[in-house]
Amino acid sequence: MSIQHRPGSIVGLPKFAAPTDFAESPLSQALKQPLLLGLFLPIQAGGWTQSTLERSTDWRFDYNKALTLKAEELGFDLVFALSQWLPKGGYGGVFDGQALDSFVSIAALAGLTKKIMLISTMHVLYGPWHPLHLAKFGATLDHITGGRWGINVVTGHRAVEHEMFGWPRIEHDRRYELAAEFLEVVQRLWSDTENFSFEGESSWKLGGGFVTPKPNFGRPILVNATGSDAGIAFAGRYSDIVFITSPTGADIDSALQSLPAHTKRVKDAAIDVGRTVRTLLNPMVICRPTEKEAWELAERIVAHADHRSPQGFQSLNSDAQAWKGRDPQDPYRAIGGNIRVIGSPEQVVDQFVKLKEAGVDGLQLSFFDFRDDLEFFGSHVLPLMKQAGLRH
Fold first, then answer.
1. Which residues does the UniProt record annotate as the domain Luciferase-like (predicted)?
2. What does the pLDDT read at residue 8?
3. Three-state DSSP class for 367?
4. Which of 46, 52, 53, 272 yields a CA-CA distance of 20 to 30 A from 217?
5. Angle (nearest 5°) at CA 315 between 314 and 321
6. Is 33 helix (H, G, I), strand (E, B) or coil?
7. How far apart are CA 224 and CA 239, in angstroms?
8. Could you tell me the domains of the chain?
9. Pick from 112, 248, 136: which is nearest to 186 by CA?
10. Model confidence pLDDT, tens digit, residues 78-95
11. Per-residue model confidence as pLDDT tens digits over 120-149
12. Cα-based angle 350, 351, 356 (whole degrees, multiple of 5)
């Protein structure tokens, strides 16, 4: 038997089961923590910091594997990384374009880890992806990891990424409409017990598709990063975790003023459709034994700022709306991160407490020197987070 759906009939489908509907799922277990804790893996050259100051940070797999295993040892809940398709030279300077693929890299970590959730960032609107591919590959990784795998759904905000696959860039809000259609079909393939056919507005079609095995907990974990109206509406309907930015830039004091309203807006979008989402923010953490030492490092990073790519990650004709609050004249811009958390271990934890009070449900950490800074974080910051009630 094949169930047939035609254009437009995707609207009004019944609610799909989510990992949070199962108390024993890895996501439900992680959400018992007062504050989710993740690591933003640097699988791209330069990591997140546009500086030539010497450090160990490296895009290669062995380096990122070691980071993941250390994060798991420290009790982190999840890891993920970016996905990018760039021309020769990347954004320029330290961001020279060398980068691993997020889907393949995260999949390679599946058999090497035991507890940490693994999220693959994937552009779903272009490239090789068909919903049937993703449904099968995702269900397989779900079984390999026991429900620890998920997708950070991205639609592409740089013209060059679409053009590289032979397409003109799709208009911003239209991208979310097509991504919604894609995810609806993937979720049907994860849940349906009969063959499923579909013909919609995208270039792909589905004729009698069926996927086994079915995921362990309804479906894999779904994440997306957004700040626009269309993206927030999409997140409210589909995501478990929404990767947000500060609407007012990377300065911590400014961010703490704008985040309460922003996190409420994101969560209300889910409540409006009978769902719940959690927010995840990416701080760049510069922590040293004293405030003075932390700021001295920050100043050294800025003193070695790499100006060969003035716009950094916003290069190559980006129409991302989440970064509109970035100040191009910010003197600390080279440090990177959605926000900057700088100080002693006690000061860092105090800022984490304030971010939680602002409605942030989790932190996806970045560091300047990932290997050494993660080690320091585990030894000096994590115990204080537990004392502050942020971690069990």
1. 38-361
2. 41
3. strand
4. 272
5. 35
6. coil
7. 6
8. 2-387 (3.20.20.30)
9. 136
10. 999 999 888 899 889 999
11. 999 988 766 899 999 999 999 999 999 999
12. 100
Spell out the residues 6+ positions from residue 89 whose beta carbon is closer than 8 angstroms to its own.
Answer: 96, 97
**Mean pLDDT over residues 153-172, rounded?**
83
How far, in whole angstroms, is CA 325 from its chain's centroid?
19
Q: How far is CA 218 from CA 17, 117, 178, in A?
A: 5, 16, 22
Burial of 351 (C-beta count, 10 Å sphere; 0-12/13-18/19+): buried
Q: What is the DSSP letter of 20?
A: G
Indicate the helix (H) or strand (E) that contains 269: helix 252-271
Give the tokens for residue 169.
């860039």
What pTM was computed for the model?
0.93
d(CA 157, CA 163): 11
The model's confidence at residue 13, banded by pLDDT at 50, 70 and 90, is: very low
Query: In terms of Cα–Cα distance, which of 125, 137, 266, 259 is closest to 183?
Result: 125
